[in-house]
Amino acid sequence: MTDYGREPQFGVFATPNADNADHLMRVATLADERGLDLIGIQDHPYQRRFLDAWSLMAVLLARTERVRVFPDVASLPLRQPAVLAKAAASLDVLSGGRFELGLGAGAFWDAIGAMGGPKRSPREAADALIEAIAVIRAMWSDERSVRVDGEHYRLAGVRPGPAPAHPIGLWLGVLGPRLLGELGRSADGWVPSSSYVPPEKLADKHARIDEAATEAGRDPAAIQRIYNVLGTITGGESRGFLHGPPTQWIEELTGLVLEHGMDTFVLGTEGDDLAQFATFADEIVPAVRQAVDAARTR
């Protein structure tokens, strides 16, 4: 059993369909008004039906008042990291500290290549992500000028700024041992999806993060564990993990906190169903908070 003792947080995973922009605004309003913590936006610039994630996130932040927004996760090969860091800091300043940064090494390499991006091997993608973390941290620093020497990314005496309005969480959507280790050493959060990392696979990946964090002198509990939970909230019988009535969701999410080490849940549903998002916010979220508090008190 793994429980890092962090306060649970909750959000929604919104699909940036260009032909459904009005619905996206309704999703954001619901998340903001119902007290959810996060809105996650997938970043696939090569998907012709999708809006640009960064343009959309700016609008969502302008249309909301309290909910935080993050790319879930940003496509590094198509986002130069020094400029990405400046964009993230700018959104954070403009929103009063409501932006976090999810970052991935890249996927769908043929599509990335078709847009003029690099087609990297797994090792090259990992190298580039590690260099990008150093670049982003440098661009968020209060140093007069910064330098980073890398094979994929370099800074040569650039002056960083503006500073973010709050310590932006740098969250990595990574799965392999090497990058999980880097996450433990230098990042603030881990963003897996339930479809790729089911509960039975979480423990091994937590262990890799925690070992690297401890070796680097960091507290593993300081690293946020964000789970994209992709499923269906139903009014009937269970159809398996994350497909069932609210009582099942309450039990499963509580178990994910207390037994599997996750602390933040970003719900994705078919068609970004507003009724399911409302049930999640109104019924499931408060019940999970209460159940976690009760179990920890005992």
Automatic annotation (TrEMBL):
GO terms for molecular function: monooxygenase activity; oxidoreductase activity, acting on paired donors, with incorporation or reduction of molecular oxygen. Keywords: Monooxygenase, Oxidoreductase. It holds the Pfam family Bac_luciferase. Residues 13-227 form the Luciferase-like domain. CDD domains: Tetrahydromethanopterin_reductase. The keyword Oxidoreductase applies. Gene3D superfamilies: Luciferase-like domain. This is Luciferase-like monooxygenase. The lineage of its organism: Bacteria, Bacillati, Actinomycetota, Actinomycetes, Pseudonocardiales.
